[in-house]
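Q: I'm building a small set of examples for a reading group on sequence design. Run inverse folding on the following structure and report the sequence directly after it, with nothing in between.
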Protein backbone atom coordinates (compact mmCIF):
# COMPACT_ATOMS: atom_id res chain seq x y z
CA UNK A 1 0.00 0.00 0.00
CA UNK A 2 1.37 3.40 -0.94
CA UNK A 3 1.30 6.48 1.26
CA UNK A 4 -1.63 7.71 -0.80
CA UNK A 5 -3.68 4.53 -0.48
CA UNK A 6 -4.33 2.72 -3.73
CA UNK A 7 -8.06 3.09 -3.42
CA UNK A 8 -7.80 6.86 -3.19
CA UNK A 9 -8.27 9.11 -6.16
CA UNK A 10 -5.42 10.82 -7.98
CA UNK A 11 -6.46 13.83 -10.05
CA UNK A 12 -4.36 14.82 -13.03
CA UNK A 13 -4.89 18.30 -14.44
CA UNK A 14 -3.82 18.94 -18.01
CA UNK A 15 -4.44 16.10 -20.44
CA UNK A 16 -1.45 16.72 -22.73
CA UNK A 17 1.82 14.84 -23.13
CA UNK A 18 2.72 14.71 -19.45
CA UNK A 19 -0.79 14.49 -18.01
CA UNK A 20 -1.54 11.41 -20.09
CA UNK A 21 1.68 9.73 -19.02
CA UNK A 22 1.24 10.54 -15.33
CA UNK A 23 -2.39 9.37 -15.44
CA UNK A 24 -1.22 6.04 -16.88
CA UNK A 25 1.38 5.63 -14.13
CA UNK A 26 -1.13 6.34 -11.31
CA UNK A 27 -3.75 4.12 -12.94
CA UNK A 28 -1.45 1.12 -13.27
CA UNK A 29 -0.38 1.66 -9.65
CA UNK A 30 -3.98 0.91 -8.71
CA UNK A 31 -5.53 4.33 -8.18
CA UNK A 32 -8.82 5.72 -9.32
CA UNK A 33 -7.73 8.50 -11.72
CA UNK A 34 -9.62 11.58 -12.81
CA UNK A 35 -8.29 13.63 -15.72
CA UNK A 36 -9.30 17.24 -16.09
CA UNK A 37 -8.42 19.72 -18.84
CA UNK A 38 -9.68 23.24 -19.50
CA UNK A 39 -10.64 21.86 -22.93
CA UNK A 40 -12.99 19.01 -21.84
CA UNK A 41 -12.67 17.26 -25.20
CA UNK A 42 -8.93 16.84 -24.58
CA UNK A 43 -9.58 15.10 -21.26
CA UNK A 44 -12.08 12.74 -22.91
CA UNK A 45 -9.65 11.97 -25.73
CA UNK A 46 -6.84 11.43 -23.21
CA UNK A 47 -8.93 8.76 -21.46
CA UNK A 48 -9.16 6.95 -24.81
CA UNK A 49 -5.43 7.39 -25.44
CA UNK A 50 -4.42 6.04 -22.03
CA UNK A 51 -6.88 3.13 -22.34
CA UNK A 52 -5.38 2.36 -25.78
CA UNK A 53 -1.86 2.36 -24.33
CA UNK A 54 -2.94 0.01 -21.53
CA UNK A 55 -4.44 -2.30 -24.19
CA UNK A 56 -1.13 -2.28 -26.05
CA UNK A 57 0.62 -3.42 -22.88
CA UNK A 58 -1.77 -6.40 -22.78
CA UNK A 59 -1.08 -7.13 -26.47
CA UNK A 60 2.66 -7.10 -25.73
CA UNK A 61 2.18 -9.49 -22.82
CA UNK A 62 3.28 -6.92 -20.25
CA UNK A 63 -0.07 -6.66 -18.45
CA UNK A 64 -2.82 -9.15 -17.56
CA UNK A 65 -6.19 -8.86 -19.27
CA UNK A 66 -7.92 -8.69 -15.86
CA UNK A 67 -5.65 -5.84 -14.69
CA UNK A 68 -6.37 -3.85 -17.85
CA UNK A 69 -10.14 -4.39 -17.48
CA UNK A 70 -9.94 -3.28 -13.86
CA UNK A 71 -7.87 -0.22 -14.80
CA UNK A 72 -10.45 0.81 -17.42
CA UNK A 73 -13.12 1.01 -14.68
CA UNK A 74 -10.92 3.37 -12.60
CA UNK A 75 -10.11 6.00 -15.24
CA UNK A 76 -12.47 8.81 -16.12
CA UNK A 77 -12.45 12.42 -17.24
CA UNK A 78 -13.91 15.22 -15.14
CA UNK A 79 -15.89 17.93 -16.90
CA UNK A 80 -15.32 20.51 -14.16
CA UNK A 81 -12.79 21.15 -11.39
CA UNK A 82 -15.42 20.20 -8.80
CA UNK A 83 -15.27 16.69 -10.25
CA UNK A 84 -11.86 16.40 -8.56
CA UNK A 85 -13.21 16.88 -5.03
CA UNK A 86 -12.43 13.32 -3.90
CA UNK A 87 -8.74 13.51 -4.85
CA UNK A 88 -6.13 12.67 -2.21
CA UNK A 89 -3.38 13.82 -4.56
CA UNK A 90 -3.61 16.32 -7.41
CA UNK A 91 -0.83 16.48 -10.02
CA UNK A 92 -0.96 19.52 -12.27
CA UNK A 93 0.55 19.27 -15.79
CA UNK A 94 -0.87 22.33 -17.56
CA UNK A 95 0.81 25.08 -19.54
CA UNK A 96 4.17 26.31 -18.13
CA UNK A 97 2.87 29.72 -17.02
CA UNK A 98 3.14 30.92 -13.45
CA UNK A 99 -0.02 33.08 -13.54
CA UNK A 100 -2.19 30.35 -15.06
CA UNK A 101 -0.88 27.72 -12.66
CA UNK A 102 -1.39 29.94 -9.59
CA UNK A 103 -4.95 30.72 -10.63
CA UNK A 104 -5.66 27.01 -10.99
CA UNK A 105 -4.26 26.12 -7.55
CA UNK A 106 -6.19 28.95 -5.89
CA UNK A 107 -9.40 27.54 -7.41
CA UNK A 108 -8.43 23.98 -6.41
CA UNK A 109 -8.08 24.90 -2.75
CA UNK A 110 -11.81 25.51 -2.69
CA UNK A 111 -12.49 22.08 -4.20
CA UNK A 112 -10.26 19.42 -2.61
CA UNK A 113 -10.04 18.51 1.08
CA UNK A 114 -7.42 20.39 3.15
CA UNK A 115 -5.31 17.23 3.58
CA UNK A 116 -5.05 16.50 -0.15
CA UNK A 117 -1.55 16.93 -1.57
CA UNK A 118 -1.18 19.48 -4.36
CA UNK A 119 1.70 18.84 -6.76
CA UNK A 120 3.00 20.62 -9.84
CA UNK A 121 4.88 18.93 -12.66
CA UNK A 122 6.55 22.22 -13.60
CA UNK A 123 9.91 21.85 -15.34
CA UNK A 124 11.35 25.17 -14.36
CA UNK A 125 9.01 27.45 -12.41
CA UNK A 126 9.58 28.12 -8.72
CA UNK A 127 7.55 25.83 -6.45
CA UNK A 128 7.82 28.51 -3.75
CA UNK A 129 6.35 31.14 -6.06
CA UNK A 130 3.55 28.83 -7.20
CA UNK A 131 2.59 28.16 -3.56
CA UNK A 132 2.64 31.81 -2.50
CA UNK A 133 -0.83 33.04 -1.66
CA UNK A 134 -2.32 29.60 -1.01
CA UNK A 135 -4.25 29.14 2.24
CA UNK A 136 -2.43 25.82 2.88
CA UNK A 137 0.97 26.05 1.16
CA UNK A 138 2.41 23.30 3.39
CA UNK A 139 0.80 20.56 1.26
CA UNK A 140 2.13 22.03 -2.00
CA UNK A 141 5.22 20.59 -3.72
CA UNK A 142 6.78 19.72 -7.05
CA UNK A 143 6.52 16.21 -8.51
CA UNK A 144 8.60 16.49 -11.64
CA UNK A 145 8.14 13.50 -13.94
CA UNK A 146 10.17 13.07 -17.12
CA UNK A 147 8.91 12.39 -20.63
CA UNK A 148 7.69 9.70 -21.33
CA UNK A 149 6.42 9.36 -17.75
CA UNK A 150 5.44 5.66 -17.97
CA UNK A 151 8.97 4.73 -19.07
CA UNK A 152 11.34 7.05 -17.23
CA UNK A 153 11.78 6.18 -13.56
CA UNK A 154 13.13 9.48 -12.20
CA UNK A 155 10.79 11.85 -10.36
CA UNK A 156 12.16 14.97 -8.64
CA UNK A 157 10.25 15.60 -5.40
CA UNK A 158 10.70 19.32 -4.92
CA UNK A 159 10.16 21.10 -1.62
CA UNK A 160 9.46 24.81 -1.76
CA UNK A 161 10.00 27.29 1.04
CA UNK A 162 6.66 26.48 2.69
CA UNK A 163 6.40 22.75 1.91
CA UNK A 164 5.72 20.71 5.05
CA UNK A 165 8.39 17.96 5.29
CA UNK A 166 5.62 15.46 6.13
CA UNK A 167 3.82 16.32 2.88
CA UNK A 168 7.03 15.87 0.87
CA UNK A 169 7.57 12.53 2.59
CA UNK A 170 4.04 11.34 1.74
CA UNK A 171 4.56 12.30 -1.89
CA UNK A 172 8.00 10.64 -1.94
CA UNK A 173 6.62 7.36 -0.56
CA UNK A 174 3.67 7.43 -2.93
CA UNK A 175 5.86 7.81 -6.00
CA UNK A 176 8.23 5.15 -4.66
CA UNK A 177 5.21 2.83 -4.34
CA UNK A 178 4.46 3.49 -8.00
CA UNK A 179 7.79 1.88 -8.92
CA UNK A 180 9.47 5.20 -9.66
CA UNK A 181 12.85 6.47 -8.47
CA UNK A 182 12.03 9.62 -6.52
CA UNK A 183 14.80 12.06 -5.59
CA UNK A 184 14.30 14.75 -2.96
CA UNK A 185 15.50 18.21 -3.88
CA UNK A 186 15.00 21.83 -2.95
CA UNK A 187 13.44 24.52 -5.07
CA UNK A 188 16.47 25.83 -6.96
CA UNK A 189 16.07 26.97 -10.61
CA UNK A 190 15.71 23.97 -12.94
CA UNK A 191 15.89 21.65 -9.89
CA UNK A 192 18.61 19.03 -10.59
CA UNK A 193 18.16 17.66 -14.09
CA UNK A 194 16.97 20.70 -15.99
CA UNK A 195 19.72 22.84 -14.51
CA UNK A 196 22.59 20.47 -15.18
CA UNK A 197 21.22 19.77 -18.68
CA UNK A 198 21.29 23.46 -19.71
CA UNK A 199 25.06 23.60 -20.45
CA UNK A 200 24.77 20.20 -22.20
CA UNK A 201 22.34 21.65 -24.75
CA UNK A 202 23.98 25.09 -24.87
CA UNK A 203 27.50 23.82 -25.60
CA UNK A 204 26.22 21.43 -28.28
CA UNK A 205 24.32 24.28 -29.97
CA UNK A 206 27.40 26.52 -29.70
CA UNK A 207 29.65 23.93 -31.40
CA UNK A 208 27.11 23.79 -34.23
CA UNK A 209 26.81 27.61 -34.46
CA UNK A 210 30.60 27.91 -34.62
CA UNK A 211 30.54 25.35 -37.46
CA UNK A 212 32.51 22.91 -35.34
CA UNK A 213 30.36 19.98 -36.45
CA UNK A 214 26.83 19.30 -37.70
CA UNK A 215 23.99 18.14 -35.41
CA UNK A 216 24.12 14.49 -36.54
CA UNK A 217 27.86 14.31 -35.85
CA UNK A 218 27.58 15.91 -32.42
CA UNK A 219 24.71 13.56 -31.50
CA UNK A 220 26.66 10.54 -32.70
CA UNK A 221 29.72 11.53 -30.66
CA UNK A 222 27.68 11.90 -27.49
CA UNK A 223 25.78 8.64 -28.07
CA UNK A 224 28.63 6.48 -29.15
CA UNK A 225 31.50 7.92 -27.15
CA UNK A 226 29.72 9.76 -24.37
CA UNK A 227 27.36 6.96 -23.40
CA UNK A 228 24.23 9.13 -23.72
CA UNK A 229 21.08 7.42 -25.03
CA UNK A 230 20.32 10.43 -27.21
CA UNK A 231 22.35 13.38 -28.39
CA UNK A 232 21.24 16.94 -27.52
CA UNK A 233 19.78 17.64 -30.98
CA UNK A 234 17.73 14.43 -31.08
CA UNK A 235 16.63 14.92 -27.50
CA UNK A 236 15.45 18.50 -27.93
CA UNK A 237 13.53 17.43 -31.06
CA UNK A 238 11.74 14.90 -28.84
CA UNK A 239 11.08 17.38 -26.02
CA UNK A 240 10.01 20.17 -28.41
CA UNK A 241 12.29 23.13 -29.24
CA UNK A 242 9.70 25.56 -27.84
CA UNK A 243 9.41 23.67 -24.54
CA UNK A 244 13.18 23.27 -24.25
CA UNK A 245 13.84 26.93 -25.03
CA UNK A 246 11.20 28.04 -22.50
CA UNK A 247 12.95 26.04 -19.76
CA UNK A 248 16.31 27.60 -20.71
CA UNK A 249 14.81 31.09 -20.60
CA UNK A 250 13.23 30.39 -17.23
CA UNK A 251 16.51 29.13 -15.70
CA UNK A 252 18.40 32.07 -17.28
CA UNK A 253 15.89 34.55 -15.78
CA UNK A 254 16.02 32.85 -12.39
CA UNK A 255 19.80 33.31 -12.29
CA UNK A 256 19.45 37.02 -13.13
CA UNK A 257 20.37 36.36 -16.75
CA UNK A 258 23.72 34.80 -15.97
CA UNK A 259 25.67 34.35 -19.25
CA UNK A 260 26.16 30.72 -18.18
CA UNK A 261 22.54 30.03 -19.15
CA UNK A 262 22.12 32.31 -22.19
CA UNK A 263 19.62 30.81 -24.68
CA UNK A 264 20.81 29.77 -28.15
CA UNK A 265 20.21 31.92 -31.24
CA UNK A 266 20.18 28.83 -33.47
CA UNK A 267 17.41 27.31 -31.33
CA UNK A 268 15.54 30.65 -31.36
CA UNK A 269 15.53 30.54 -35.18
CA UNK A 270 14.08 27.02 -35.14
CA UNK A 271 11.27 28.10 -32.81
CA UNK A 272 10.56 31.18 -34.94
CA UNK A 273 10.36 28.96 -38.03
CA UNK A 274 7.89 26.61 -36.30
CA UNK A 275 10.44 23.80 -36.48
CA UNK A 276 9.56 22.50 -33.04
CA UNK A 277 10.83 18.94 -33.44
CA UNK A 278 8.99 15.64 -33.86
CA UNK A 279 5.63 17.16 -33.03
CA UNK A 280 5.79 19.59 -35.99
CA UNK A 281 7.50 17.16 -38.39
CA UNK A 282 10.76 19.11 -38.43
CA UNK A 283 13.27 20.36 -35.86
CA UNK A 284 17.02 20.00 -36.09
CA UNK A 285 16.17 16.97 -38.22
CA UNK A 286 13.24 16.21 -40.57
CA UNK A 287 10.62 13.61 -39.52
CA UNK A 288 8.50 11.83 -42.11
P1 LIG B 1 0.89 20.01 -23.22
O1 LIG B 1 0.81 21.27 -23.98
O2 LIG B 1 1.10 18.71 -23.94
O3 LIG B 1 -0.46 19.85 -22.34
C1 LIG B 1 -0.97 20.86 -21.53
C2 LIG B 1 -2.47 20.66 -21.37
O4 LIG B 1 -2.91 21.55 -20.33
C3 LIG B 1 -3.29 20.97 -22.62
O5 LIG B 1 -4.15 19.89 -22.93
C4 LIG B 1 -4.10 22.23 -22.22
O6 LIG B 1 -5.40 22.26 -22.79
C5 LIG B 1 -4.18 22.07 -20.71
N1 LIG B 1 -4.38 23.32 -19.99
C6 LIG B 1 -3.82 24.54 -20.23
N2 LIG B 1 -4.25 25.44 -19.31
C7 LIG B 1 -5.08 24.77 -18.47
C8 LIG B 1 -5.81 25.15 -17.31
N3 LIG B 1 -5.77 26.39 -16.84
N4 LIG B 1 -6.54 24.20 -16.68
C9 LIG B 1 -6.60 22.93 -17.15
N5 LIG B 1 -5.93 22.52 -18.25
C10 LIG B 1 -5.16 23.42 -18.89
O7 LIG B 1 2.03 20.24 -22.11
P2 LIG B 1 3.04 19.15 -21.46
O8 LIG B 1 4.22 18.99 -22.36
O9 LIG B 1 2.26 17.97 -21.02
O10 LIG B 1 3.57 19.98 -20.19
C11 LIG B 1 2.76 20.16 -19.06
C12 LIG B 1 3.62 20.56 -17.87
O11 LIG B 1 4.60 19.54 -17.63
C13 LIG B 1 4.40 21.86 -18.04
O12 LIG B 1 4.47 22.50 -16.79
C14 LIG B 1 5.78 21.38 -18.50
O13 LIG B 1 6.79 22.30 -18.19
C15 LIG B 1 5.91 20.12 -17.68
N6 LIG B 1 6.83 19.10 -18.23
C16 LIG B 1 6.88 18.86 -19.57
C17 LIG B 1 7.75 17.88 -20.05
C18 LIG B 1 7.82 17.56 -21.53
O14 LIG B 1 8.80 16.91 -21.95
N7 LIG B 1 6.84 17.95 -22.34
C19 LIG B 1 8.55 17.14 -19.16
C20 LIG B 1 8.44 17.40 -17.77
C21 LIG B 1 7.59 18.40 -17.31
Amino acid sequence: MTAIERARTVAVIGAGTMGQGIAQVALLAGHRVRLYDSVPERAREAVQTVTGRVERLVAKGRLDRAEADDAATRLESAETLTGLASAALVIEAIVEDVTVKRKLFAALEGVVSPDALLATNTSSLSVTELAAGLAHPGRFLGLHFFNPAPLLPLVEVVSGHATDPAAAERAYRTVLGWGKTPVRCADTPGFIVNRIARPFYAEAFAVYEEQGADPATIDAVLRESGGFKMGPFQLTDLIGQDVNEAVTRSVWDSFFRSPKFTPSLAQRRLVQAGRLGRKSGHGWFPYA
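Residues 138 and 164 are 5 Å apart (CA to CA).
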